[in-house]
Amino acid sequence: MSLFHHISFQEVDPLGDGLREEIIAEQQEPEAMTLEDVDAGTLSAYWQDVEKDIEQDPTWFRFDNEE
Predict the structure, then answer these.
(1) Across 2-25, average pLDDT
(2) Sequence-separated (6 or more) residues with CB below 8 Å from residue 23
(3) Is residue 20 included in any domain, yes or no?
(4) Is residue 55 part of a domain?
(5) How does the average pLDDT of the chain come out, rounded?
(6) Which range marks the domain in which residue 49 is found?
(7) Is residue 52 part of a domain?
(8) Residue range 17-39, pLDDT digits in tens
(9) Is the pTM of this model over 0.70?
(10) Sign of CA dihedral 45, 36, 54, 51
């Protein structure tokens, strides 16, 4: 009978060294980033508002308006 039939290894938990608790704590912070599914219309409207805001900056210029 081979010795290898009697050896077993415990499964390694990559988060078992306290990393799991750190991740959970960071997820609870008020400034934690979250990923949310945003529809294309909402996203487009947001960036249009950003563009309008940027265009109000006196130092803003566009390369496509060069003469």
Answers:
(1) 78
(2) 15
(3) no
(4) yes
(5) 82
(6) 35-60
(7) yes
(8) 888 888 889 999 999 888 888 89
(9) no
(10) negative
